TrEMBL record:
Key word Coiled coil present: yes
Family membership: Belongs to the HAUS1 family.
Predominant localisation class: cytoplasm
Location of the protein in the cell: Cytoplasm, Cytoskeleton, Spindle
One GO term (biological process): spindle assembly
Protein name per its UniProtKB record: HAUS augmin-like complex, subunit 1
Any coiled-coil regions, as ranges: 116-143
InterPro entries in UniProt: HAUS1 (IPR026243)
GO cellular component: HAUS complex; microtubule; spindle
Keywords of this entry: Cell cycle, Cell division, Coiled coil, Cytoplasm, Cytoskeleton, Microtubule, Mitosis
Length: 231
């Protein structure tokens, strides 16, 4: 644990430099996290240092090779960078740019041709992939169009169904209200009838003058008027 704390403190001091290190709670969990960060940071710093050294070495090699080529040009054909004409300098610059783009080490034909062939193959593959993606996109657009049409039709069906349900619901509500009204009136009339009968009974009135008796009497008289006369 002490070794971890010492290593973490050294790392924090290197990170913050002249600034004071912020205070933090020292416990096992915090120290484990900081220790992992320390290990990761040191590993990345080590990788970066190796990469820098490699780039420095390559730069030195390129500089040495450039000096050598300048000497060859100067001694062989008497050319120097300052003696080139403007078109020749432009050609050389274009050749260097092409070399950098193609990622070849030198400007020989044996280096350029494989790099150009490789780029050509990549271009053909990219065009082939683009054609495939265009076909897939066309199919997706067609499917999307069909889906949108189907969605519109389904929405129309839903709207019609909702409207029909609203109309049927209104009719059903009206029927329920009518049934409730009829039931209430029936109950009310039944209660009134019972009260009337009870009142008639309490007054000891004859049944012959009740509503039912009068109706029966009227029916008997009507039936006697329509009987045929016997000969």
């Amino acid at each position: 644990m002490c070794e971890k704390i010492k290593k973490v403190n050294n790392w924090l001091a290197s990170v913050f430099g002249d600034q004071p290190v912020p205070q933090f709670e020292v416990n096992t969990r915090v120290m484990d996290i900081l220790y992992q960060l320390t290990e990761t940071s040191e590993a990345r710093c080590s990788d970066t240092a190796l990469l820098i050294e490699d780039l420095k070495q390559k730069t030195s090699e390129y500089q040495t090779e450039a000096i050598y080529l300048q000497d060859v040009l100067l001694e062989g054909v008497g050319l120097s960078p300052t003696s080139l004409s403007k078109p020749a300098a432009d050609y050389v610059s274009a050749l260097v740019d092409s070399t950098m783009v193609l990622g070849v080490r030198d400007t020989s034909l044996g280096s350029f041709m494989p790099a150009i062939n490789s780029l050509t193959n990549e271009l053909l593959e990219a065009e082939k992939s683009n054609r495939r993606l265009e076909r897939e996109l066309g199919a997706l657009r067609k499917t999307l169009g069909s889906t949108l049409v189907l969605r519109a039709e389904l929405q129309e069906d839903i709207d019609r169904t909702a409207k029909s349900q609203a109309v049927e619901g209104s009719k059903a509500e009206e029927r329920l209200l009518t049934m409730d009204f009829v039931a209430a009136k029936t109950t009310e009339l039944t209660i009134k009838l019972k009260r009337s009968e009870a009142e008639l009974t309490s007054r000891k009135m004859e049944k012959s003058i009740t509503h039912q008796a009068i109706v029966q009497l009227a029916e008997v008289r009507c039936s006697s008027h329509i009987h045929p006369v016997c000969c």
